[in-house]
Please model this.
Amino acid sequence: MSRPAIAERLRATIGESRLREVLQAYKEPRGAILPLVILLRDEGVDIDADVTAWIAHTCEVSAAIVLGALSGFSELSRDLDSIAVCEGLTCRLMGASSVRALLQERLGEDRVCTSVCQNACSSAPTLQVHGVLYGGLHEESLNALARRLERPASRD
Model:
């Protein structure tokens, strides 16, 4: 389905007046990210890459920002194939930027986002995939995890 067709379908699902109401409830459009996700989920819409792109466009942010917002809510993002790297202070000090860079290189920038502190500082650096927390990441364990997360189509 084309992006304009997806946008039209989502606007019809929510309704123009409801969409305006949600967007106007926030000082900045980005404040409406989670309310839009919840509204769409309540209407039975799966939050996939196309829907994420529409939410990003509607809220005037990148898809990575939407994925980052969803990373703390596995019940909302269970259909997404995203990896949320913790950007809390301890994780940053323990190498979160290297973790993020390696995963972006191996798996693509569209799949890797950052999240607020994941409250697992004793296991820093950490990341979450589908609500599962991975910690104590070093190069060997990170490479093994990246191999497991590679999409079949991207393998040689």
